[in-house]
Design a protein that fits this description.
heterodimer, A: mainly alpha, Non-ribosomal Peptide Synthetase Peptidyl Carrier Protein, Chain A, 4 helices, globular, B: alpha/beta, Rossmann fold, GMP Synthetase, Chain A, domain 3, 3 domains, 9-stranded mixed beta sheet
Chain lengths: ~80, ~500
């Protein structure tokens, strides 16, 4: 989780990702940040996020992103 | 026909209950749109009359924004749509030039621009004003087709925004070409990507009104999520899209069409920047029965002056033609000596005809620079527009876009088009987007790229197979994501100013 928060802060500084629960609705993560984030997550966690995973539910909070990573690591 | 509102009135009379425009929260039938616009128009005439004054529309991208735009037209004034996300200081720069009679906005908008000390009108109040039929009729009787319809601001190279003024005749002529050429009918369902302060929206908005079609405004957040975007297109049964290439590339780069196909899609049109062939080929491979067309033109020719319907295969390393002039619009190429270019010779593209804007609002100097007497016609006054684009004809007689005149650079004594460097880089596997810049101070071509697992060595080796030495970038900067401007196009200006800070 710490590693994820670090990555999130690197793509979008100045946000308290532990707290925010509406990253999409509150326009914190936009299309470009998501592209950038996905590229980094793929590299850092050695997973493959496919378009099917790129849905608002998986990106609404750090927790949701973390759950997705865990699921993809198992696959 | 002399007024674009006749397009709306005609479609509303024919099919009043049909949905004209939707956004996520709301839908408007033709009847509702007509009535809302008439109310707004009546309210505006009652407050400051029909004086061909600029009225700014400062609302989120939704159906209300369209109601307000047509409301301004009913009032006999003209509109400028202002980006709701734009910082107040930039709005001030636009308003300094425009000096709007009023700004139509909502409660939140009033807060956001309170520092500008400008007269605001609440959309909710305007749209609930009783329609004054007599006033509207009097305004229409006096209207002529060369009255201003809207002013559209583009960023000038000096940073001072320029507002191109377009009239009713421009949009009537232009939209006629658009619906004829792409067979836009009552069956057409647009999925709109471009904001209303961007000239591309003129095509789908007025195409919709003219044909009595339906347009769905796709909210920006969908462009973050490829699958929900495709699902949305399917839910709304979108069969025609007219997007910037960057938006099409998002779906191609995710390979999203491998997972879900937009099943109703019949036409994919694009404009605004160069469509990378590699990503276009992905779309064509996945949707072989769809018509694809490359449209080309500036705000000053309403939206488009030339177009090319894709009719053959292109290698990833080839670039798409921009084709031929639209019907009722003429283009010609003027070479360095001010004469008509010979076959295959490159030169600046000029446009003439009814699509041409009237000039720049409150800026006679910039107007005189770009809107000039036809250099090939010494006999009578005829204004033509210098696009600032370098083009040539290929051996098939199709126009080929080379680059912006401003982007053509001199490097090591050679004249170089940065567009060619970009086309080469874009053709490379795994490159998802790129932008070539020229640093005149360091006399160096800088290539900014995004894409997975790209090594400098590999890129230089690849580019060497396509580019002569003098066109090779002196530096390649890999970044995680390309910056885009508010229209969704690659933000060249920002990159030029900031590329040094991107180096890791």
């Amino acid at each position: 989780m710490e590693q994820l928060i670090e990555i999130l802060n690197s793509v979008k500084p100045g946000v308290d990702f532990k707290k925010e629960q509406n990253l999409i609705e509150d326009h914190i993560l936009d299309s470009l940040t998501i592209v950038m984030l996905v590229a980094q997550l793929n590299d850092e966690f050695d997973i493959e996020i496919t378009p099917l995973d790129i849905v608002p539910e998986n990106f609404k909070s750090a927790e949701a992103i973390y759950k997705m990573i865990e699921r993809l690591e198992e696959e | 026909m002399k007024n674009v509102l006749e397009l709306l009135e005609h479609s509303a009379a024919k099919n009043p209950q049909k949905t004209a425009f939707t956004c996520e929260e709301k839908a408007l039938t033709y009847k509702e749109l007509l009535s809302g616009a008439k109310s707004i128009g009546s309210a505006l005439i009652e407050s400051f009359g029909a004086q061909k004054l600029p009225v700014a529309v400062y609302l989120p991208r939704g159906v209300e924004c369209l109601e307000a735009m047509f409301g301004v037209v009913y009032s006999g004034n003209f509109y400028t749509v202002v980006d709701y996300e734009m910082p107040p200081e930039r709005i001030r720069a636009v308003f300094d030039t425009l000096k709007p009679a009023a700004v139509i906005t909502d409660e939140e908008g009033i807060q956001k621009i309170s520092s500008l000390k400008i007269e605001t009108r609440l959309f909710e109040t305007l749209v609930n004003t009783p329609i004054n039929v007599a006033l509207l009729r009097a305004v229409r009787e006096k209207s002529i087709d060369t009255d201003p319809l809207y002013a559209l601001f583009t960023s000038g190279s000096t940073g001072v925004p320029k507002g191109a003024v377009l009239n009713h005749k421009n949009v009537l002529s232009y939209s006629q070409w658009f619906v004829d050429t792409f067979d836009i009918t009552e069956e057409t369902v647009f999925g709109s990507q471009t904001p209303f302060y961007f000239s591309m929206s003129v095509s789908d908005v007025f195409g919709t009104l003219r044909a009595g079609a339906t347009l769905h405004i796709i909210s920006k957040k969908y462009f973050s999520f490829p699958m929900p975007l495709l699902q949305y297109l399917n839910e709304r049964q979108v069969n025609t899209i007219y997007w910037v290439p960057s938006a099409l590339c998002i779906l191609a780069n995710w390979k999203a069409l491998d997972y879900l196909k937009p099943e109703h899609l019949k036409k994919v049109l694009f404009a605004g920047e160069v469509m990378p062939t590699k990503q276009l080929n992905y779309w064509i491979e996945k949707l072989p029965d769809v018509q694809f067309a490359n449209l080309f033109g500036p705000t000053e020719t309403t939206d488009i002056c030339t177009y090319y319907v894709v009719d053959r295969k292109f290698l990833d390393t080839e670039t798409l033609p921009i084709g031929k002039a639209c019907n009722n619009c003429d283009v010609f190429i003027v070479n360095e000596n001010g004469a008509l270019a010979k076959d295959g010779e490159e030169g600046e593209l000029y446009a003439r005809g009814s699509f041409l804007a009237m000039g720049y609002y409150g800026n006679p100097q910039k107007t005189a620079e770009a809107f000039v007497q036809n250099p090939l016609n010494p006999n009578y006054p005829e204004t033509v527009y210098k696009t600032g684009d370098l083009v040539k004809y290929n051996e098939k007689g199709e126009l080929i876009y080379i680059t912006r005149k401003d982007f053509q650079i001199k490097h090591m004594g050679y004249r170089i088009e940065l567009g060619e460097v970009e086309a080469a880089a874009n053709s490379m596997p795994r490159v998802t987007a790129c932008c070539a810049l020229f640093d005149a101070v360091l006399d160096k071509i800088v290539l900014v790229v995004t894409g997975k697992k790209l090594s400098d060595d590999e890129m230089f080796t690849y580019l060497k197979t396509l580019l002569p030495d003098y066109m090779m970038p002196g530096e390649i900067i890999k970044i995680a994501t390309m910056p885009y401007n508010s229209n969704g196009k690659i933000d060249r200006k920002w990159l030029s100013a900031n590329y040094k800070t991107l180096k890791k």
